[in-house]
Amino acid sequence: MSVPFIDLKSQYNALKKSIDSRIQKVLESGAYINGPEVAELEKLLATHTGTKHCLAVGSGTDALVLPLMALGIGQNKSSEDEVITTAFSFIATAETIVLAGAQPVYVDIDRKTYNIDVSKIEAAITQKTKAIMPVSLYGQAADLDEINALAKKHNLHVIEDTAQSYGAAYKNTKSGACTTAAGTSFYPAKPLGCYGEGGAIFTNDEQLLQVMKELREHGSEKRYHHTRLGLNARIDTLQCAILLAKMERYDWEVDARNKIAQNFSHQMDELKNVDPQFSTPFIKNGNKSVWAQYTVTVTNRDIFQKKMQELGVPTTVHYPMTMPDQPWYKKNTPQRFDIPHSRWAAEHVVSLPMYPDMDETIQSKVIEATKTAVKFSIENNK
Ligand SMILES: *Cc1c(COP(=O)(O)O)cnc(C)c1O
């Protein structure tokens, strides 16, 4: 029996009654766009995150583009605005900055957390800098207090990319609740996933919310009256109905993921004696990860992954290339600063199966396979 990388079927079975009945209700209502479930979800997620406002949108990409647009970033005709971000993330982070009309300025990561290295941000700030976009990668919040302090000092906005960290705890608050705005994704494989595309923006700024609401509807403050350049960034009512059902056990899921991660890290720790570059995830004091990924590092990744596949355990690399090394970005958004840790991560990280319904038998299988494959990858590296 091979192990799935994520298991959405068990989750569906656990929530089937609620999901099916909520979907049925939407189907019968006919309110497929802007139905009552949209506002219901926004209210629930704002409360859950601890923000004043939530705006549900069509994707995580929309959830990052809209705050940038609403803040007027990238709309400077005489010079190009800059947004400081990490070099190591899913491409959508840099993509949304470019789509808004601004230039991403890439900063290296902290080698332990894979999040932006705050000590390198200040050197990247110029007259053109308008915002910082940290990413809370793999489910763990970035160093938001330090980033907010820098932003305050230099009069910048902070937009947190929370696509992988919905619900993650950060000190006494939550990822998504401490910055000018935050954008998350409900892509099915994310910690809180729907059954299609979806995303949400969080903010405490009422005025910003109003502008983003208009942008979501083609820049209209009322129907057929377009006062801004906007887009269609709406979410389906059906996706909101599904997310309302998923929220019924989301906190349990986060706890379940944390228990699995703890077991993995405890059992795999000994591999540091086998592979000098082996590491299990490092979670900072005050952080509670939602474990979007359980990501380790190994010296010989190709051999490791092949062996894992033979043993029936799938693995994935998040991400095999830094953003500024991606072909289009290399040409159009050159990196200004050295990014050795990001490049090291791109060569050595590998994610193992992680999902809340993983039982103990499968956890043991993942652990044993990892032990075998790490040993094999060290002994058979030619
Ligand atoms: C998934 C993801 C996004 C984009 O979300 P979509 O819903 O796929 O548009 C943005 N940033 C990060 C870090 C992501 O993982």
What class, by secondary structure content?
alpha/beta
CATH topology-level name of the largest domain: Aspartate Aminotransferase, domain 2
Please give the number of β-strands.
14
What does the overall shape look like? Answer: globular
CATH class of the largest domain: Alpha Beta
Total domain modules: 2
CATH level-4 homologous superfamily of the largest domain: Type I PLP-dependent aspartate aminotransferase-like (Major domain)
pLDDT averaged residue by residue? 97
Poorly predicted runs = none
- Bound small molecules, deduplicated: pyridoxal-5'-phosphate
Q: Output the strand order for the largest sheet.
A: 1-9-8-5-4-2-3
Largest sheet: 7 strands, mixed
- Architecture per CATH nomenclature, i.e. the level-2 architecture of the largest domain: 3-Layer(aba) Sandwich
Helix amount: 25-40%
First and last CA, distance: 31 Å
Report the sheet-strand fraction: 5-15%
* Gyration radius, in Å: 21 Å
Number of helices: 12
SSE pattern: HHEHEHEEHEEEEEHEEHHEEHHHEH
Q: Characteristics of this structure?
A:
382 residues; alpha/beta; Aspartate Aminotransferase, domain 1; 2 domains; 3-stranded antiparallel sheet; 14 strands; binds pyridoxal-5'-phosphate
